[in-house]
Each structure stands twice: as structure tokens, then as C-alpha cells.
Here is the input.
Amino acid sequence: GAPVEGMVGAVLGDLVATRRALDELNALLGHVPTLEPLRDAVRLGYHYQRGEYERVVELGERFIARHAPQTVIGWGPAYALIAICMSETGRPQRALEICSAALATLTAGDHEYFVMYLLIVLAQATAYYFEKDFDRAADIFRAAASRLAVAGENGALAVLHDHRARIARRLGRRNDLHAALVEMRYAALAAD
Here is the structure.
């Protein structure tokens, strides 16, 4: 349904799917008010896909204040998008705070479901990238890519490398961009 379509659309860059899910969730709110946090998470993804990073930051701070980690469905991707937008708008330290707080709530059992929290890890690496701590960012990206490859999660691996490529392009890091594009291609081909 709408919640899954909205979160997947936001992560994969499908603005139409994200908007459709947001509209469906808005329509459902009159009947199921408990869907509000999920609607808010999908709305963050919608504004992210539109490049409205300041809007995500504004809505995101409210989301974080109202919903601690692990208290609502969709909190992980929502926190990640908020943190990425913090970095994109010149606040990588705040992004690192958000990621650290979110990751600190995960138990050993949670880490078995690594893909569920992958976006928070990517947001953390992104913040380090914007902080110009390129080695630390690369280490985080590399560790995440390794876990995904071992798990056979090639689709998620392609998403990781796509994100790396976008950040490298944004910061003018041509060698990192080239490497990310090559690795994204291999991951996408393996995802068949």
C-alpha cells in the first residue's frame, strides 16, 4: 500500500510514487489518525525528492521532537533523510548528532536487519563527507557495501553507490564519483 510505496519511492527517487502515497495517506488520516507519523515520514521523502532540503530540515526537527527512534514505523528512513538534508544545508554536525542518537538505540538483534537501518549509516557517511572527513566516510561506505554484497543485497548496493555518486558530484570529487558509478553499474548488473 501507500506507506511502503511512499518510503520506497522516496529512497529510489520516484517522485510520482511518493506523491501518490502521500495523497493516499492524507486521505486515510480522517479514518486512521494513527497513520500521521507515517504520513509525516513520507512527506519528508517527498520534499527530499523535490530538492527542498530546508523544508525537510524544518519538518524533520519537528518529526524528531515528536518521534524518538524506534517509536513509529518509518522512523529510520525519516531520520536518515533529515540527516542527509542537514548535511546538504550546511549542518553536518547536526546530521552526525541525529545519526549517532539513532544508531545508539539499535540492539545487537537490530543489527541483524542491517538493510533496515542502511539509510542512517549512509546519512552518517554523508555527514562525514560534508565535514571533509573523506577517509571516515569512505570507511563507512565500504563497510556498508561489504555487508550488502555478502548478503546478496545488490539492489540496495546499487542505491548505496548511487548515493555516493550524488554526494561526490555535489562536492566536486571526480575520482570518488567515477569509482561510485563503476561500482553502481556492477551492483545493478548483479541485481538481475
Summary: The CA atoms of residues 85 and 91 lie 8 Å apart. The mean pLDDT is 90.
